[in-house]
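thread from #wetlab-drylab

HS: before we spend reagent money on co-crystallization trials with flavin-adenine dinucleotide, can we at least see a predicted complex? here's what I'd submit
DV: go for it
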Amino acid sequence: MEYDYLIVGAGLFGATFAHQAHKQGKRCLVIDRREHLGGNVYCENIDGINVHKYGAHIFHTNNKEVWDFVNSIVPFNRYTNSPVANYKGKLYNLPFNMNTFYQMWGVTTPAEAQMRLESQRAAALRALDGREPQNLEEQARLLIGDDIYERLIKGYTEKQWGRSCKDLPAFIIKRLPVRMVFDNNYFNDRYQGIPIGGYNRLIDGLLEGVETRTGIDFIKERKECNSQFSILNSKFKKIVYTGSIDEYYGYCYGKLEYRTVRLEQERINDSNYQGNAVVNYTERNIPYTRIIEHKHFEMFGSEVESIPTTIISKEYPAEWKEGMEPYYPINDERNTALYAKYKELADREENVIFGGRLAEYKYYDMAPVIERALAAI
Ligand SMILES: Cc1cc2nc3c(=O)[nH]c(=O)nc-3n(C[C@H](O)[C@H](O)[C@H](O)COP(=O)(O)OP(=O)(O)OC[C@H]3O[C@@H](n4cnc5c(N)ncnc54)[C@H](O)[C@@H]3O)c2cc1C
C-alpha cells in the first residue's frame, strides 16, 4: 500500500493534520502506540460520564478561526472554568477577584479590597528592606500580600514543584493578576467549552475517513525495517511525527526530562460530590493539588442528578520517571540546550515533520496545537 503520509500519534496534532491532508485528497495512515485514539484528550466513558483519562482538558482560545474549525467538527458546550480553592475547609473563588476578597476579608467594594492589598504589599516591601526578592515566597508576598499568598499560593505551589517556595526562584511568578470585579471565569479568552458528547467525538470527527491503527509503536516497527518510510508493509512519502523527539533519535544526546501528575480515580455513590468540576486544595499537608469531578464539564443544573454516581480524579504532582506520562516539559538550562541539539537534527530531515507537544518539547494548550497542525500542512 502506498500513502502520502504516515502520521505517528493520534493526538490533536496528528488528528488535525490528518483531517486537513485527507480533505486535500492525500492518503494518510495514522498510528498510535496506545490502544485508543485521541492522545491526551482521550476520555473513557464510565456510567455515562466522560472521564478525562490524562487530566482535565478545557478548550479555550481567542482565535475565532480555530474556534470555528473545532465547532465545525463537533459543537462545543458553554462550560466556563470557575475553579474553587479549599483552604482548611474554607472556600475561595479563583482567579483572585472581588468574590475572593469578600471571602477573605469581608470587603464589599473594590476600593476596600485595593486598600487591603496595598497595605499587605507595602508590608512585604518594607520587609525586603531595599533588597530584590530572593525567592518565590518573597516575590509572591510583594505581588499579592500575605493573606492570599499563605492561603491560596504557598501550599499549592510547593506541592506542584515538590519544594519549599523559599527554595524556588523568584522569576517563576512574574505577575499575579487580580480582578477588581466579581468574575470567576478563569480564562480571559473569548471562546471556551467542551465538545458536546466529549473529546472523543472531536477526534473521531477529525479522523473520519482516515485509516487508523492503534497499539502500533513506530519506534519498534522502524527497528525491523531498512527504511522508516517503508514499514507496516506499506510505503510512505512523508512522516508526521508527534512522539518524543529524543526517542526518535534513540536518545543519542541523552533524555529530556518532564514533570508529571499522578491521577487517582474514584467512583463515588453520590450524584454530586463537590458541585464544581475543579476544586484546588491549597494546603501543603493535603497531598493532592486538585480534585476534578468530571460530570460537571458536560452536565449542568439538574442534569447533574440524572446520573446517581460520579467520578472524581485526585491530582498528585510528581517527578517524572520512566514509564510515567511525560506531561510538562522542564524549561531549565539543561533541557533547553538538549532539545536544541535534537532540533538541529530534526531541521535537517527532509521528509519528516515534527509537531505537537512531545516532538517540539513544549507545553502547548489544545488551541495552539491545532493552529500549528493547520499551519504545518
Ligand atoms: C494534565 C494536562 C492537562 C491539560 N489541560 C489542558 C487544558 O485544560 N486546556 C488545553 O487547551 N490544553 C490542555 N493540555 C494540553 C493538551 O493536552 C495538549 O495541547 C494536546 O494534547 C497536545 O496534543 P499532541 O497531539 O501534541 O500530543 P498527545 O496528545 O500527547 O499525542 C501524541 C500521541 O503520540 C503517540 N505516540 C508517541 N510516540 C509514539 C510512537 N513511537 N508510536 C506511536 N505513537 C506514538 C502517543 O501515544 C500520543 O497518543 C493539558 C495537558 C496536560 C498534560
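DV: The first strand starts at residue 2 and ends at 8.
HS: ok that's useful, forwarding to the group
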